[in-house]
Design a protein that fits this description.
The protein is of the alpha/beta class. The protein contains 17 helices and 20 strands. It has 3 domains: about 120 residues, NAD(P)-binding Rossmann-like Domain (Rossmann fold); about 200 residues, UDP-N-acetylmuramoyl-L-alanine:D-glutamate ligase; about 140 residues, Protein-Tyrosine Phosphatase, Chain A (Alpha-Beta Complex), CATH 3.90.190.20. The protein has a 9-stranded mixed β-sheet, sandwiched between helices. Helix 6 packs across helix 11 and helix 13 packs parallel to helix 14. The longest helix is centred in the C-terminal third of the chain and has 18 residues. It is globular. The N and C termini lie far apart (about 70 Å). The model has no long low-confidence stretch (mean pLDDT about 95).
């Protein structure tokens, strides 16, 4: 009997299974290593040539992984046609129009003939005995997941952090036991293929994003709801009472399984987290610390802290440890990251603000006047509310990238605007315009792919340009 007739549920199911790993980035390399060690018959496909993948190839070591690198479409299709298990990189899916059409067709054909299509995260979820704390949402996932891991660590609760953040966890799947927690950041790229829910599922918010991939807001939100739907039978689901998308999701779930948080007391659910009238953060009725002591700026960051606190508490962390972890938390790169504070001007990197609502939250995090750097790859989102926030809070706006023209048309005659060609030019001009007491804020309100590899590279280029500016002055 073909092994493809047996769903992959344990490491024993992998032995002898014809497997193709699509993409040799970090998760693809980790999956290839794990699968080969488990006795699967592994091939790895990447459209990049071997010369560009030297580090990935070296990381595979002497494992028997057949490499199909830089091959033509016909060879790749032939490889996929014989696979019983396909492990995809997060951005590859038969459901995404952003995936190459031929690859989408090949994935559909594979599913029709009975092959399983999974991601590295889904493979980890199938293999591990660890308890799962999943974090998803439109924005705030990385900060929240990182906070949860820090809170559990402070409490002495064994945990690992992974998913859409940090190191792929698949190679640690077998070493984790039922007393361990895996804290997973789960993006909309990873949710469609997962088959296991979480013991505790956290939602930061459910807005709109990636319409270029999902087509409609409804389709995007349906993907986001998958974690709750899979977790609902036995897990606890943590929702943001201040967020319309979370409230809508909560209406579809059994009330007994939902815990709520918000800046004001939600007033529902057996366990809550909120800020009381005296300005203290509370979880399950216990005080953590005062809101003014939270080291992260902005009301949206305060909600992330409340979300993480409630999740960590449900996973076994006491209030004392949670409060200590919050006070010691230094933040996450590219999320309202303080890059420099010189000559009375603070330079803030919020490159991860890739949608208008996130950029608005960044603008609202500061009382000072702002010189804004914005613009990037268009994702089909509306910018009207963002333009209103810019008009209210900014001294000037410096625009780059694909969305510069649209933003300029919305902001013109409301705030001085300038269009420049690249990030170093934007930083130099911001330095000319900023006055003592101002904030220079990179909050693009758009994706990075028109000019950069990803949001992290965009933030790194911003940071380097700020450092160069200071050296030159």
């Amino acid at each position: 009997m073909s092994t493809s007739a047996v769903p992959v549920r344990s490491v024993a199911d992998l032995h002898g299974r014809r497997t193709v790993v699509l993409g040799l980035a970090r998760s693809g390399v980790a999956a290839s290593r794990f699968l080969a060690d488990a006795g699967a018959v592994v091939a790895a496909y990447d459209r990049r040539p071997a010369a560009e993948l030297a580090d990935a190839i070296a990381a595979l070591g002497a494992r028997p992984v057949r490499l199909a690198l830089g091959v033509d479409r016909a060879a790749a299709e032939a490889l996929l046609a014989h696979a019983e298990l396909l492990v995809t990189s997060p951005s590859v899916s038969a459901r995404f129009p952003t995936t190459d059409p031929w690859l989408r067709e090949a994935l559909v054909a594979a599913e029709v003939r009975g092959a399983e299509v999974v991601s590295e995260v889904d493979l980890f979820l199938r293999m591990t005995r660890a308890r799962i704390l999943g974090v998803t949402g439109t924005k705030g996932k990385t900060t929240t997941a990182s906070l949860v891991a820090a809170m559990l660590g402070r409490a002495g609760v064994p945990n690992v952090l992974g998913g859409n953040i940090g190191t792929p966890l698949i190679e640690r799947a077998m070493e984790l036991g039922p007393d361990d927690w895996a804290v997973l950041e789960l993006s909309e790229l990873q949710l469609p293929t997962i088959t296991r829910g979480a013991d505790v599922a956290l939602y930061t918010n459910v807005g709109e994003d990636h319409l270029d991939r999902h087509g409609t807001v409804e389709a995007y939100r349906a993907v986001k709801a998958r974690l709750a739907e899979l977790s609902a039978p036995s897990g606890r689901i943590v929702l943001n009472n201040d967020d319309p998308g979370c409230r809508e999701l909560g209406e579809r779930l059994a009330p007994a399984g939902v815990a709520w948080y918000g800046l004001a007391r939600p007033g529902r659910g057996r366990v809550e987290s909120w800020v009381d009238d005296d300005g203290w953060l509370l979880v399950a009725g216990e005080r953590l610390l005062e809101a003014r002591e939270v080291p992260l700026p902005g009301r949206h960051m305060l909600r992330n802290v409340l979300c993480a606190s409630l999740g960590a508490n449900l996973a076994g962390a006491p209030a004392t440890a949670i409060g200590e972890a919050i006070a010691a938390f230094e933040g996450v790169p590219h999320r309202l990251e303080l890059v420099a504070a010189r000559r009375g001007v603070r330079w803030i990197n919020d490159s991860q603000a890739t949608v208008p609502v996130a950029a608005i939250a960044a603008l609202e995090a500061f009382d000072a006047r702002i010189v804004l750097i914005a613009g990037g790859k268009d994702k089909g989102l509306a910018y009207d509310a963002f333009a209103d926030a810019v008009a209210t809070r900014c001294r000037a706006a410096i625009l780059i990238g694909e969305t510069a023209d649209e933003l300029a048309s919305l902001i013109a005659n409301r705030v001085p605007i300038e269009r420049v060609l690249d990030m170093p030019a934007a930083v130099r001009r911001a330095g000319d315009l900023a006055r003592p007491g101002d904030v220079v804020l990179l909050a693009p309100a758009a994706a990075s792919f028109d000019m950069f590899v990803d949001y992290a590279e965009r933030g790194d280029v911003f940071r380097a340009a700020v450092e160069s500016l200071e050296r030159d002055r």
